[in-house]
Every structure is written in structure tokens, then in C-alpha cells.
Amino acid sequence: MSGWTGTVVESFGRRVVVQQQAGDGERVQCSLRGKKLDVVVGDEVRVERPEGADEWTVEARLPRRNVLARSDSRGQPESLVANVDQLAVVIAPRPACEPAMVDRYVAGAAFSGIDALLIVNTADLLAEAGTSADSMTAAAAAELERLVADWRKGGLRSYYVSARRRDGLDALIDGALRGRRTLFAGQSGVGKSSLLNALVGEDCRRTRELSDATGEGRHTSVSSAIFAARDWSGELADSPGVRDYAPQLVPPGQVQSGFREIALAAADCRFLDCLHLREPQCAVTAAVAAGRIDARRYESYRRLVHLMRELAERRGPRR
Ligand code: GDP
Ligand code: ZN
User: pTM here?
Assistant: First the structure.
């Protein structure tokens, strides 16, 4: 029996690629031992190849520092990526930004103790807004910039970049990415792949080692992967685009921890366990009425409290 410890750098359902931590960083394809083993990209695992076998298997998962998870429609958790330092939500002027989804990603990261930041890609389109017939309208550009300003007020770091023109990439690397493992998330079409390629310095899609042909998971056509940047020290993780991200289940009272400006204002609510819905003497709803908290952000918060209740009901009592 020969075995070692490594990091899962690519996952394709029940098959993964594990990179050795020591030595020369050998990479092997493995299957997972047992159905219960929940292993995702970023996990540290113990791999072994039994005497005479030609296949490596993941025998065990080491303890996780954190894990970003989603809830499925029945309220069950599904791990997406483990052991990341931060989540970068990528948005763009086109396709139109869904602000509530950004809020849910940022909240989901906070529920797992993961910091978040915002990357506005295709900033070149913003700069050209209104200048020609096929460019975006100046009003749409202003609307996006207003959204970003409100996220900044809520404490979210943000960076404007253009993957195509390579604008703003150095500032993004120096300001946020260097020395860290960052998970990229966002709607498909916002330029996530272009951005990853520009930042990592090679074609991420081509470098993937598991393909549809070799993988067992025909249903999961997209794999997740971690890439080490070629020209600077840092890692970027890509997750399959989730169309409608719902965070892992948390009690309703914990939802505010995903909305920094709401959690801050909550200190002045009359009740310690105020959910900021219809309670009297609520400092949060007062701040919304006074315009100190963005009404759209508050609405996202309110909906997430309801979603968490609904998912908890669907999941049923904990076993
Ligand atoms: P993904 O679905 O998020 O991975 O998006 P892609 O990387 O495939 O990009 C979607 C489209 O946006 C492609 O046509 C890209 O060429 C284009 N795109 C990506 N980045 C930029 C950018 O910075 N500026 C402009 N104008 N287009 C971009
Ligand atoms: Zn309140």
C-alpha cells in the first residue's frame, strides 16, 4: 500500500484529480471510496493505491477549514468548494446583473465564514456606454454603477476590470488575489472563463484533465477546478455556474450576518432577536425608511429570511 496526502484540484462527480502536496506535485486521477465520501475541489484528501491495483482511490477527507455550500430545492446541502480564502462574484453589464443573486452569494459565503468581493467585468462596455447603436445605453451603465456603489456602502470590496483588454487585472491581483485561493462565481456569460484565462495565464478549459469522455458523471457536464496562476502566487477556483444559488440553511436570525450594513444597524433594535420584519422599534426598518440602508438590499435580506424558513420546512425535522 502506498499513499499520500494531496489537494483535490479537479472534480467531476465521483472522479477527481488529486495533486500531491509534497514532492514534485504529482497529479493522479482517483475514484472516491464509498458513496458517503463528500469530496469537492479544494479538499485535502488521503489517496492510496492498493498493491496490484492500477487505480488510485481517495480513502479519506481531512478536516475542512471551510466549505461553500448551496441548498437544493429540498433544503439539502450540497458542497461546492472547500478551503477557499474568499469568494469573488463576477458581474457584467451584459447579461444584465441579477443583484439578488449577488446578495445571496455574498450571504452564503458569510454563512461559511468566507470573505467576498465583487468583480465587474467587461468594464470596457461601461466606458463605451451610449457611444454607438450597439453599445449599452448610458442609463443601463449608470444603473449598474449605482448597484456597485450600494454594495460598496454595504462593505463589499469591488474591482472594475476588462478581461478582453486586460484592464485592471494588476490592481485586482495586487489588491485581492495574491497569496490567496479565490473561488469565482457568477452567471454564465459574464466573462468568467475569459477572466480566469487572463488571470491564470493559460487556457483553463484546455488544461482540464478530466473530460466528458473519461468522466463517469454524464449528468454533470461541467467540472470544477483549481488553477495555480503562472505569473504570480495565488490560486483561482472555478465552480460550475449555478443558475439560482441558494445558500446553505441557517436559522432566520443568522441571515443578517450575510448583510453587513443590516447586522451593524441591528445593534440598536429594541429586541435582541429582532428579525427586522415587523417588530416594533426596529433600527433596521427605520434605517431603510430613512434611506440609510438601500431598500433593494433590505428586500434581498427579507426574501432570504423567508427562503430559509421555506427550505427548512421542506427539509423537515433534522435527523
Ligand atoms: P462565461 O460564460 O462567464 O465563462 O463567459 P465567457 O468568458 O465565455 O465570455 C462571454 C462573452 O463575453 C464572450 O463573448 C467574451 O468574448 C466576452 N467577454 C469576456 N470578457 C470581456 C471583456 O472584458 N470585454 C468585452 N467586451 N467582452 C468580454
Ligand atoms: Zn430590527
Answer: 0.92
- How many Å apart are CA 250 and CA 300, to the nearest integer? 15
Write out pLDDT tens, residues 150-203.
Answer: 999 889 999 999 999 999 999 999 999 999 999 999 988 899 999 999 999 877
191 pocket-lining for ligand 1 (C-beta < 6 Å):
yes
* N-to-C CA span, the chain: 37
Q: How far is the CA of 125 from the centre of ligand 1 (A)?
A: 11
**Cα separations in angstroms, 81 against 66, 67, 205:** 9, 6, 18
How far apart CA 232 and CA 216 sit, in angstroms, is 34
What is the rounded distance in angstroms from the CA atom of residue 161 to the CA atom of residue 121?
5
Which helix (H) or strand (E) covers residue 229, if one does? none
H or E element at residue 114:
none
What residue numbers bound the domain in which 276 lies? 252-315
Question: Do 106 and 84 lie in a common domain?
Answer: yes
Burial of 107 from C-beta contacts in 10 A (0-12 / 13-18 / 19+): buried
CA-nearest residue for atom 22, ligand 1, is 122
State the distance from the centre of ligand 1 to the C-alpha of 165, rounded, in angstroms: 11
- Asked, for residue 246, whether it belongs to a domain, the answer is no
Q: Report the C-alpha gap between 294 and 158 in whole angstroms.
A: 17
